[in-house]
Structures are given as C-alpha cells and as structure tokens.
Write a structure and sequence with these properties.
mainly beta, eight-stranded antiparallel β-sheet, 9% helix
Length: 215
C-alpha cells in the first residue's frame, strides 16, 4: 500500500533541517525535512486607481472575501476525488506571475506575496478543472472576480480566479478536464489571465507541484 502525506511549509520558514516523526499503526517513522533556500522574484508594476478603488479599495470587498473564501480554509471533504497528476487549468499560456513573487504595486515599499500562478492568455479561453472534485465556491467576488473553488478531498483545494464567467455551481462534481469557466479579467486584475492557486487547508503551496503529484 502507498500512503501519501502532504506537508506544506511557510515560504518564510527558517532554512534548516526539520525532524518529522510519523506515528502509524503503533510504529514510528523518523525523517528529516531539509528545507533549502529559494530566491523569489521581485515584480514592480502599476495598477490604475480606478481598478484599485472598485475592487480591493471597496469597503465591502474584504468582508465579502472573508465570508466566502475563509470558510474554505477549514473545510475538508473525506472522499478523495482526485486521480493521478493534476493538469494545467489552461494550455499554452504565458506565466506572468509565479508562486511566491514579491509584488510591489504602485510604488509600495512593502511587497505582497503572490500565492498562486498567473496564467496570461486571451480572454474567453477554456478554464479546466485541474482534477476531480466537488465545487464548493462558484461566485463573483468584488476582490477576485468570478471564482471557482474545487475541493479534491482531504483538505486539498484549487482556486480559479478572475474568470469571465462561471460554468459550474456549488455542489457540482467535476472531473479532470471539465470546463468550469473561461479566462477573464474580473476583480482586481489589469488584463486577461487566470489566477490558479492550490491550498492544503489554510496553507498555499506551489501549484506546479501538482503536475507531478504522483510521479
């Protein structure tokens, strides 16, 4: 039998070796996690004032985000829906922002961290479910636009943001490759792209690791 553990770690965690003990069936398995240093990119760009004001600057944006998105951090479906490696949600796109990028917006002196991957591609491009799961959010949010969240089981979720439309509803069971919407530029966005994010409970991790999940 194969047992899979996923252990996300904070991007700012201290670079060192971390002991890991797994207790399973009255046995203890000891491992060492060797955390290596990684140099994240810096991005400097400008967002129009009108876009800021209508999205992240809207006083209703943050409360709405907390109401709709925060509960997904703690939810977990017992059934495992995913099979094999995940697929990219869009094909032949350019990556405009990588996971962990330090983004300085409008001459800010303190960066924000990018917690997903931005795939820049023409609006209207099909967005596909990266793997099987249950749709737990399908909603147009002020801050991040048309958004779908898929729970793949055991607290593993993927997020699809800024879409042009929503092709699924909460409670739908989707399969890998199903079209869940189309690329757009809704919410806090300056151009056609898909923000793709993956989380284990309340911890984001690099979605690229999903593409070789079972290798």
């Amino acid at each position: 039998n194969t047992i899979i553990f996923y252990i996300p770690m904070w991007y700012a965690a201290e670079v060192k070796e971390y002991p890991l003990s797994i207790h399973l069936n009255n046995k203890v398995y000891d491992y060492i996690i060797d955390l290596n240093e990684y140099e994240f990119r810096e991005l400097h760009f400008t967002v129009p004032t009108s876009t800021v004001t209508s999205t992240v600057g809207n006083p209703n944006a943050a409360p709405e985000y907390r109401e709709i998105i925060y509960p997904t951090y703690e939810s977990a479906i017992d059934e495992v829906y995913w099979e094999g490696n995940f697929i990219m949600p869009v094909f032949d796109a350019r990556i405009s922002s990588y996971f962990g990028d330090m983004r300085f917006v409008n001459d800010a002196t303190v960066p924000t961290r990018h917690v997903g991957i931005d795939y820049a591609i023409e609006c209207g491009t099909d967005v596909m479910a990266s793997n099987g799961g249950e749709v737990i959010v399908s909603y147009n949010l002020i801050m991040i636009g048309n958004t779908v969240v898929i729970d793949h089981g055991l607290g593993l979720k993927t997020y699809y943001e800024h879409m042009q439309d929503l092709n699924v509803e909460v409670g739908d069971i989707v399969e890998k490759g199903d079209i869940i919407g189309h690329v757009g530029t809704t919410g806090y966005s300056t151009g056609c792209h898909l923000h793709f994010q993956s989380m284990i409970k309340n911890q984001s991790f690099n979605p690229e690791s999903l593409y070789s999940w079972m290798d």
